[in-house]
Amino acid sequence: MVTGQNLLAIDEDVPLFALGLINSAVELGGSSFGCHPELIALFQDDLFRFLMQLGLSNMNPLILSMVCSIVLNLYHHLRSHLKLQLEAFFSCVVIRLAQGKYGASYQQQEVAMEALVDFCRQSTFMPEMYANFDCDITCGNIFEELGNLLSKSAFPVNCPLSAMHILALEGLIAVIHSMAERAGASGSIIPVLEVANPNETREYVPFWTLKCENYKDPKSWVKFVQRQKYIKRRLMIGADHFNRDPKKGLEFLQGIRLLPEKLDPQSVACFFRYTTGLDKSLLGDFLGDPDEFCLQVLAEFARTFDFQGMTLDAAMRTFLETFRLPGEAQKIHRVLEAFAGRYYEQSNQILADKDAAFLLAYSLIMLNTDQHNSQVKKKMTEEDFIKNNRSINGGQDLPREVLSELYHSIVRNEIKISYDNSSGIVEMTPSRWVGLIYRSQKSSPYIKCDSRPFLDRDMFAIISGPTIAAISVVFDHAEDEDVLRMCVEGFLAVAKISSSHHLEDVLDDLVVSLCKFTTLLNPTSSVDEPILAFGDDTKARMAAVTVFNIVNKYGDYIRTSWRNILDCILRLHKLGLLPARVVSDAEDDVEGIGDSMHGRPITGGPTLIAIPQGGAKKRSQGLMGRFSQLLSLETDEPRSQPTEQQLAAHQRTLRAIEACRIDSIITESKFLQAESLLQLVRALLWAAGRPQKAGGSPEDEDTAVFCLDLLIAVALNNRDRIMLLWQVVYEHIANIVQTTLMPCLLVEKAVFGLLRICQRLLPYKEDLAEELLRSLQLILKLDARVADAFCERITQEVMQLVKTNAKHIKSPMGWRTVSSLLSITARHYEASEVGFEALSFIMAEGAHLTPANYVLCLDAARAFAEVSVGGNERSIRALDLMTESIKCLIQWSGGAGDEETVSNSQELGEMWMRLAHGLRKVCREPREEVRNHAILSLQRSLSAAENMHLPPSFWLQSFDQVIFVMLDDLLDIALEHSQKEYRNMENTLHFAMKLVSKTFLQFLDQLILLPGFRALWLSVLSRMNRYRKAKLRGKDSEKIQELIPELLKNMLLIMKNRGVLVQRSTIGCDSLWELTWHHVQDISPSLQAELLPQWEESQEMGSVESEMDIGTGNAA
């Protein structure tokens, strides 16, 4: 090859021809060159050095293109042998030229960018750059630099979009696509190694001693490079601290365990040697300092170099490349002394001692200054140099050929130290190249990556921000559809990578960026202006379809950007462009939701949407609703016809919205991960705002209603994990219910949405049943005006809930809520029929009566019996329900063997008493038919109650608390109220006295066993006497007058026959016999005259027979 010094003086065809031959040789030879060390050495040194020189020369861009093609082929076949050479090529050639710095022409910049894009299209290129360089503490961050280069080059800053921008975008998207393909091909992402684990960094470990056990086994090298990257990041932070204040920088490194608690020279020297980014002037000053510790660090720093096999000038180039030689002579002296000592230790015995090495090194520095300083007019000749170095080798001369070689090396290639400039561009000097060649002999092996995404998460976390920004800017500036599609592919790839590696923040940033491009969030005054604009804006439609496709596909990993998504959905809703099925799940089986603006889907509608012209008429909502009135002849005002362009724009809008599949976001929310689902719900609550009170705008209420619909739909679609959402859903609905004072669509949706949730979830969530039913108590807290407006429909929903879920309502609390809701409907004309139907469903034939709901249902039935709404017939039916319920008590007491058996007689007795009290209270009803039926119902219940086998004390309690109270109440009513208020009370009293007589005789055998029997019997007689003497409307009741003696006679006869009422010899006159006849005398004297003589005679005969029996027994 032609040397770089003569490149400009020759025909351009010669280097092109030579480069073509080399390229063909590399393509044909391929990896087989790796078997020949001599050829590899040629590639590593001479070939790569000249390729870099050619690439940087100001020549035909075709030469640069050919150079890049050769390097690409070398990468394909021999990259395992060219690790540091590749780093140098990208740092010093590609990045430098692609940035257009240092006089690079636009053509060179474009060629360099094309070459970089070609490299990026290799799927393993970027992972290998990251693993081999970014994760190597001694190398630069090539991957990060290339990623930033592509991102920045894609930005059109204050200029139109150019071919260079598109080219950079292609490279960036190629990198992203490779990551996306690896993410899709891998069954599962390998977990990221948490190298920052405190347990791993608690103790100090010399970072320069860490080694990888096996560079061919991913299980080994992945963990190693991730740890190295972690260490490298902390070293860079430490370097930044050191550059500001060396002392504090070292203290910081001690704090993060990269240096030992007690500093030692070796650890500080290794930090200086292996850390990039250090200020080389500060480093030189530190190494040249006369402080004892600094001298020890300098000695250890020199020992980190391996000069074996190197000439003195090559060793000096390598050594001086790592820091800036201080300006003071004494510091230079100390630094060169340390260098000379290390070089002498590893020299080939040409030098007699380290003083010889020091003198020769100093002489080379002087020669370098002499030859390459323009101010020195008279240059040192070779003979002068040899003469100046006589007798420095222990009193002897050094071999002339050695000195001659050193002289010519310095003359040809200046020891020119290149320090990293502020732009970060590295310049490859001869000194640096020499150091690179020697480093390459001992550098770590080149890591080859495969199709598995071992490092993609770490890589993507670095470039995701610039990548999204670059693609977004190009998307914003682009007009060509091909470029827009390329950007969309990039967005989708970013979304796939973010979700695959669980980078939620990145995905949120992407969604936020895309939402801005939809133009849906732009404020506009007209309804149809954004619709037309959206239909005409290809970019906006593509952004909308893309963002909603991302939401549908990768919603699991969306977090805070749910708010932006909902903003777009709300905007589409306000424009009437949302498909009605978006919230249809929440509205299934709910009819007539007021003037709801999002009803069921309209089928069979037209295929064109109308373009309203002014006016303030209420617009139709829903995607198909926008079709109304187009070309209609029934309009009140003349309407201009839409143009073909407007119709086409509307059609494009509809197709785009349909492609978004917005309804799937809600219906498929059941598959979202828990955290994403919670974020969606929180976003809905945020979008809904506070419950709208009086004075809120219709638009605000419409938004709140729509968000509530979505919230309920999400809850219903996630019934299997409703516990995750229930608290926030309930609190939102409760807030609406408790703060709304007037009927409105929002509270209507809240109430019936709550009922809908309960209906849907009760069959599936037994553990949540009580909580769901308790939530229905919110309905009881509705403002009276709101409750009255919706009472009928609320009752219908409660009836439906009971009919479908009665067997799932098991707790007393749940039944209390249901019975309370049914009870309040008893007095409501529109709702009472449905409420009673629901109650009948529960109580009829005891179908769904349980010990848990028995008393509650009795109270509800009594509420229906006591009101006139529904007429006497419904009240009587309610009483019949109460009466028939005694069968359940009998069943539960009889040990039927099922789970509803009530083993505690006390509990059973209390339920019986609630039934008896309930019927007794209805006996006070002003309506004659109902009142009399209540007495008969109580009588039937008492007749059947004997089969419950309750303790006798309950029957005594029934008389005292139920029957006697009923008798007293009825008599008081008859005496105190007019015929107009309580008609025909005479018949009622007649029925009541019959009930007393029959019940007393029915339970006589049990009552006589009780100590309180005498008092009970006397109470019966006392009330008979009161009834007989009562004057109804100022006169005696013939019917009562005839009934009571007859009943009393029957009772006395039965008591006598059963041996309850017998005459016994007692001291005083307080025996049952005497007391009975005393009351009988007062009630009916004729009855006493009729019965008493017969009973006394019978009693005497019985006594004589008893005495004879006793006498006979004694004689025997």
From TrEMBL:
Compartments (UniProt record): Cytoplasm, Cytosol; Membrane
High-level lineage: Eukaryota, Viridiplantae, Streptophyta, Embryophyta, Tracheophyta
Keyword field: Guanine-nucleotide releasing factor
One term under GO cellular component: endomembrane system
Subcellular location, principal: cytoplasm
Name by which UniProt lists this protein: SEC7 domain-containing protein
Positions in coiled-coil regions: none
A UniProt-annotated Pfam family: TPR_28
SUPFAM superfamilies membership: ARM repeat, Sec7 domain
Highest taxon above the source species: Eukaryota
Gene Ontology MF terms: guanyl-nucleotide exchange factor activity
Membrane topology: Peripheral membrane protein
PANTHER family: GOLGI-SPECIFIC BREFELDIN A-RESISTANCE GUANINE NUCLEOTIDE EXCHANGE FACTOR 1, GUANYL-NUCLEOTIDE EXCHANGE FACTOR
GO biological process: regulation of ARF protein signal transduction; vesicle-mediated transport
Organism: Ceratopteris richardii (Triangle waterfern)
The SEC7 domain, residue ranges: 224-413
